[in-house]
């Protein structure tokens, strides 16, 4: 997006504010579907947890996407956005049997990732087809919090438990219509990913009634200059070929599914915040903004490097700044960043603010959460109002001590 458009949004809707570029989401969606154009049945299920605004969900629906959900509330959001239950897959981890049953009753595809729930569910609902989340134990790099494929990960059913899994299926007579994996958040080495896929194919061959194989996500997007990203085109070429061969061996045309979150929305997002104070200490120049990790937690939580620009003075002389928030604990967005000269009142722009940014925001320090704006067809559309003090106290029940 152009700086003048971003500035106009900050002016019209105030700061801090999240801005999402619909065109970028569209082009990422296209890029992924183009990469897999040789696969007859492709299904992209956008991972709602990355950015769950209803207008964003509706936009993805318009593009042809389905949804990947991890809670019943995400399922409800999807239904509210107009997705039919068949377009939604539910991949929870550690949720109650009651919630899984409730979602199944809505007609949403269930994906089960542990043997205990599988056995209970199969005994009670043998006719409801279920997808199984497999853990192939392949490390896909990245941050340890987002690598979920390793041996002692809480996610998925271990490939070492396939015999036990098959026994449960035989005993309950349940139907398995899908096999799934989601190994982590960084597919950088395509050969490693294809190796995990081989394990999934091998597992899939034990099941006779499959309709789809879901390869999860893990597409890496660049955050800063020089970052490597998943080569989606190469992955598409290699995995499509292998998938089509598998379908021939299997004897049926299966659907190839992915469930990207970050890939579709990360780069579409911009977070705009105003500089309240420039503070020079003996060693550092701090730029303190009208926001904090209550609005954008990724730098403090995952050590994520969001590129920061001063869009009020993009051509100014560059200096080193440490950009900090207003939360009363260490709240650093970026240390010693080279940013064009900052004056109080300038608008800073954080890149890659589409995925896991607003959706992880909170009211910590009793601050309201920012507005969200969708930039669509050359115009700004407010898609979530900035909260007010009323929202902070909404559910509080005041005890009368008189
Ligand atoms: C979070 C999640 C995704 C999306 O991951 P990204 O890294 O954002 O693409 C996909 N599938 C499952 C099961 C997830 O939990």
Automatic annotation (TrEMBL):
InterPro entries the record matches: Ala_racemase/Decarboxylase_C (IPR009006), DAP_deCOOHase_LysA (IPR002986), De-COase2_C (IPR022643), De-COase2_N (IPR022644), De-COase2_pyr-phos_BS (IPR022653), Orn/DAP/Arg_de-COase (IPR000183), PLP-binding_barrel (IPR029066)
Chemical reaction(s) catalysed: meso-2,6-diaminopimelate + H(+) = L-lysine + CO2
GO MF entry, a single one: pyridoxal phosphate binding
Cofactor names: pyridoxal 5'-phosphate
Binding site for pyridoxal 5'-phosphate: 218, 356
Orn/DAP/Arg decarboxylase 2 N-terminal domain: residues covered: 24-266
Enzyme class: lyase
Residues of the Orn/DAP/Arg decarboxylase 2 C-terminal domain: 18-354
Keywords: Amino-acid biosynthesis, Decarboxylase, Lyase, Lysine biosynthesis, Pyridoxal phosphate
Record-linked Pfam families: Orn_Arg_deC_N, Orn_DAP_Arg_deC
GO terms classed as biological process: lysine biosynthetic process via diaminopimelate
N6-(pyridoxal phosphate)lysine: residues bearing it: 49
UniProt similarity note: Belongs to the Orn/Lys/Arg decarboxylase class-II family. LysA subfamily.
Protein name as annotated: Diaminopimelate decarboxylase
Gene: lysA
């Amino acid at each position: 997006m152009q700086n003048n458009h971003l500035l106009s949004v900050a002016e019209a809707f105030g700061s801090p504010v999240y801005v999402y570029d619909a065109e970028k989401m569209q082009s990422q969606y296209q890029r992924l579907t183009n990469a897999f154009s040789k696969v007859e049945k492709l299904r992209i299920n956008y991972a709602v947890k990355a950015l769950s605004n209803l207008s964003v969900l509706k936009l993805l629906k318009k593009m042809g996407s389905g949804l990947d959900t991890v809670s019943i509330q995400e399922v409800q959001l999807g239904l509210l956005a107009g997705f039919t239950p068949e377009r939604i897959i539910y991949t929870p981890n550690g949720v109650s049997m009651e919630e899984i049953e409730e979602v199944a009753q809505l007609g949403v595809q269930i994906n089960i990732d542990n043997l205990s729930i599988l056995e209970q569910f199969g005994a009670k609902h043998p006719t409801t087809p279920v997808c199984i989340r497999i853990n192939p134990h392949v490390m896909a790099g990245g941050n340890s919090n987002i690598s979920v494929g390793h041996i002692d990960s809480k996610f998925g059913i271990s490939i070492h438990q396939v015999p036990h899994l098959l026994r449960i299926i035989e005993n309950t007579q349940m139907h398995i219509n899908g096999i799934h994996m989601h190994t982590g958040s960084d597919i950088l080495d395509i050969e490693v990913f294809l190796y995990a896929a081989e394990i999934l194919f091998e597992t899939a061959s034990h099941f006779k009634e499959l309709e789809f194989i879901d390869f999860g996500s893990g597409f890496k997007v660049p955050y800063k200059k020089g970052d490597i990203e998943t080569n989606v085109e190469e992955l598409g070429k290699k995995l499509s070929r292998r998938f089509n061969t598998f379908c021939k061996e299997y004897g049926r045309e299966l659907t190839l599914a992915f469930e990207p979150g970050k890939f579709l929305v990360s780069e579409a997002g911009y977070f705009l915040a105003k500089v309240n104070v420039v503070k020079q200490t003996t060693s550092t120049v701090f730029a303190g903004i009208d926001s904090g990790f209550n609005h954008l937690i990724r730098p403090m939580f995952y050590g994520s490097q969001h590129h920061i620009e001063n869009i009020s003075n993009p051509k100014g002389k560059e200096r080193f700044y440490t950009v900090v928030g207003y939360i009363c604990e260490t709240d650093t967005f970026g240390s010693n960043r080279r940013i064009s000269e900052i004056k109080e009142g300038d608008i800073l722009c954080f890149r890659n603010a589409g995925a896991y940014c607003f959706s992880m925001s909170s009211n910590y320090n009793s601050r309201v959460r920012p507005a969200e704006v969708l930039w669509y067809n050359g115009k700004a559309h407010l898609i979530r109002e900035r909260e007010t003090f009323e929202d902070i106290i909404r559910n509080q029940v005041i005890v009368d001590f008189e």
